[in-house]
Design goal:
16% strand; Band 7 domain-containing protein; three-stranded antiparallel β-sheet; alpha+beta; Tetrahydropterin Synthase, Chain A
């Protein structure tokens, strides 16, 4: 390597001395007087110090003559390290730069570590996605803190039940009338459906929107299977049909080759049904007419029952009267018969007595009559006789 003495160094031009001093102070920075480039701000102070040393004391440059052999030559790093500035300010500056570099490394490491850690809650299912390589992992993660390449993210789906409220919706019944309804249904995501759902819908938002539209389509299809009248008296059957069609839309049918939307239906509730006003009025009028008819029929039955009751009562009363009259007639007949028998018996006894008198007294019929007349007159307390002519009161001559 060529060396230069102090006398030779003194003969160098000011431009060359400044250039060599700049290269020694900052070998990393490139300085070109021809292109007019500036010295980096971070090394400006060190460069100025070296220039002043060369200008004020050219004899000290003899130690560094290996770096000034040529304007185009570059310094050896080993020589630069051995010939480094050992002043207090330079040492302090190098320490500051060292600590700054170490702090920067620590901050970068912490930032990379922070960017490499992602958390997945226990209520969610996640799949790791490398945003730099555009690569999707097929492992399903849940409930933990996971490490991955810096800057990656998780595509997450909730693992709990998801509720969808379809309020103030309208569908068309089987007979072509508009029916307002409100439906609430629940569905969920399974671990087996996460990866296919991401491939088809990219993220949770688009998947949830697709599931909601599929559920609404299933409900509209169910409405078209029933008439308006059935919405009044078959609400439970309609709800079951809606839930069955919802499962078919969300889960698909492998037998029929129908694909779902990678969701599992849980339940469905038909919370509100409102029929058209015209239909409600027609139904109200029909119900009123049916109620009037039913009332008339009930009144007819009531009046018929009342008349039947009165007729039965009259029949019972007439039968009672008939039975009473018959009983009284039988009593009278019995009494008359007994009275007749009594009179007949009395007459028989009296006839027998008269016969005994007649036979005992040896009387004729006229004598018996005279006997009876005398006996009758004898038994009467007061006797009043009215006659038109004198009566023959004594039958003495005839006895």
């Amino acid at each position: 390597m060529m060396t230069t003495s102090t006398s030779d160094l003194a003969q160098l031009s000011t431009k060359e001395l400044w250039h060599d001093a700049i290269e020694e102070a900052n070998p990393i920075a490139t300085y070109s007087w021809d292109k007019g480039e500036n010295i980096a701000d971070s090394t400006a102070e060190s460069t100025a110090i070296k220039i002043r040393e060369v200008r004020d004391n050219p004899s000290t440059a003899g130690r560094k003559d290996s770096c000034a052999s040529s304007v185009m030559a570059r310094c050896n790093p080993v020589d630069l390290w051995h010939n480094r500035d050992m002043s207090a300010s330079a040492v302090h500056r190098r320490k500051m730069w060292g600590w700054t570099f170490i702090l920067a490394l620590i901050l970068v490491a912490v930032g990379l570590l922070f960017a490499s850690l992602k958390k997945v809650p226990s209520t969610e299912l996640g799949v790791q996605y490398n945003i730099h390589k555009k690569q999707l992992d097929d492992a399903i993660k849940s409930g933990g803190l996971f490490v991955g390449p810096p800057g990656y993210r998780f595509i997450k789906f909730p693992s709990t039940f998801i509720t969808v409220d379809l309020n103030d919706r309208t569908c068309v019944s089987n007979d072509g009338l508009l029916v307002q309804f409100a439906v609430t249904f629940q569905y969920r995501m399974t671990a087996a459906n996460v990866y296919p759902a991401i491939l088809k819908y990219r993220d949770h938002h688009k998947w949830a929107s697709t599931v909601e539209q599929a559920g609404l389509s299933a409900i509209h299809h169910s409405c078209s299977e029933f008439s308006v009248t059935e919405f009044q008296n078959k609400r439970g059957i309609i709800q079951s049909t809606m839930e069955k069609n919802l499962r078919l839309k969300l889960e698909g049918n492998k037998t029929a080759g129908e694909e779902g939307v990678n969701a599992v239906a849980v339940s469905l509730q038909l919370t509100f049904v409102h029929l058209p006003e015209e239909y409600n009025r027609a139904v109200a009028e029909k119900q009123a007419a049916e109620e009037d008819i039913a009332l008339a029929i009930a009144q007819r039955k009531q009046e018929t029952t009342k008349a039947s009751t009165e007729l039965l009562k009259a029949k019972e009363e007439s039968q009672k009267i008939r039975d009473t009259a018959q009983n009284e007639a039988e009593v009278l007949l019995t009494e008359a018969k007994l009275k007749a028998e009594e009179i007949l018996y009395s007459f028989q006894k009296e006839a027998e007595a008269l016969m005994q008198v007649k036979n005992g007294l040896n009387l004729t019929t006229e004598g018996v009559l005279a006997y009876l007349s005398t006996k009758l007159l004898n038994e009467a307390d007061h006797l009043t006789v009215t006659t038109g002519e004198p009566a023959r009161l004594s039958r003495k001559d005839e006895l």
